[in-house]
């Protein structure tokens, strides 16, 4: 057996904030750009897909006796990763929030309220979750179903590690390593091309309450690649990285750019922002710098984080040229 990289510590922060929009929260440490090299793995045969394998996941060491052929994913992020690394044909069921890729076998299974009986009905030989809710790990363990808990990434390196670990667990290590290298290369390129001398400020909205995300979150780290200043970092109460801001706070900060991650869930746009008391004269609104994000991409830490970075980079470039 060969161990795969160590698990991630810490609980999820911001989950309750984001659950209303069907999202999962993350936290992150300040950005550190990694070189475009293959991710490290331990063990002599990391790329061969040999079994059994032991993965050090959020729920400790999990040994997988043979290559799984009936995977159930209860995490939208991990569903995306499984298909990106070539494990899609092994996936037999995904949860009700796993809406990408379109061919994922979506069911009414819930990652927020896991039903063990319903999960077992799919005869899984591996279940992947981002949270051990309702003691799902122990309950599935009673019927000898291995479970990997892969918590929300707190920084980019965590996301890379999880992709690598899922590659090892599913027998797709080589493709997982390829995905990670591609992500690193793309993010490095976007960061290098971004104009960082403009002193641009921004506000990232999670929902219209409004909740925001500071630089100490996973999403904040992505923005940090572009040299932007986050107005939420000066919130009176950082609230674990997801402060609830007042309308007055945002109006006074008057950010150069506003990124909306509550478009699909909550129908927010430039017009709805302008209708908020005191927001009609915000620079971002007057200068047409309100960027509508894809809620799903903006709340997940899988391979599509590159698409989020591309959107941010394009907005920064446009603002820098004006």
UniProtKB/TrEMBL annotation:
Q: Which UniProt keywords apply?
A: Signal
Q: Which residues form the signal peptide?
A: 1-19
Superkingdom is Bacteria
The record places domain Fe/B12 periplasmic-binding at: 70-320
| Pfam family name, one | Peripla_BP_2
Q: Does rRNA processing appear among the keywords? A: no
Q: Does the keyword Signal apply?
A: yes
Query: So what family is this one in?
Result: Belongs to the bacterial solute-binding protein 8 family.
What is the name listed in the Swiss-Prot or TrEMBL entry for this protein?
A: ABC transporter substrate-binding protein
């Amino acid at each position: 057996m060969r161990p795969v990289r160590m698990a991630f510590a810490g609980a999820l922060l911001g989950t309750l904030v984001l659950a209303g929009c069907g999202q999962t929260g993350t936290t992150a440490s300040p950005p550190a750009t990694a070189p475009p090299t293959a991710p490290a793995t331990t063990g002599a045969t990391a790329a061969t897909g040999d079994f059994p394998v032991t993965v050090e996941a959020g729920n400790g060491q999990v040994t997988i006796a043979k290559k799984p052929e009936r995977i159930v994913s209860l995490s939208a992020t991990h569903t995306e990763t499984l298909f990106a690394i070539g494990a899609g044909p092994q996936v037999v069921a995904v949860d009700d929030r796993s809406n990408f890729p379109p061919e994922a076998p979506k069911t009414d299974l819930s990652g927020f309220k896991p039903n063990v009986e319903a999960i077992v009905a799919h005869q899984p030989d591996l279940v992947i979750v981002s949270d051990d809710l309702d003691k799902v790990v122990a309950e599935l363990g009673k019927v000898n179903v291995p479970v990997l808990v892969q918590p929300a990434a707190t920084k980019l390196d965590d996301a890379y590690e999880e992709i690598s670990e899922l590659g090892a667990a599913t027998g797709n290590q080589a493709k997982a390593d390829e995905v990670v290298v591609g992500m690193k290369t793309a993010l490095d390129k976007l960061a290098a091309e971004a104009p960082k001398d403009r002193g641009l400020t921004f506000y990232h909205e999670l929902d219209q309450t409004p909740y925001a995300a500071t630089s100490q979150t996973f999403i904040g780290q992505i923005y940090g690649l572009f040299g932007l200043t986050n107005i939420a970092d000066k919130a009176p109460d950082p609230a674990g990285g997801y402060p609830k801001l007042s309308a007055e706070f945002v109006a006074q900060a008057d950010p150069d750019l506003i990124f909306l991650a509550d478009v699909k869930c909550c129908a927010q746009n430039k017009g709805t922002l302008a209708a908020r008391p005191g927001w009609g004269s915000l620079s971002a609104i007057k200068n047409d710098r309100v960027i509508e994000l894809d809620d799903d991409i903006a709340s997940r830490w899988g391979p599509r984080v590159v698409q989020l970075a591309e959107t941010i980079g394009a907005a920064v470039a446009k603002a820098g040229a004006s």
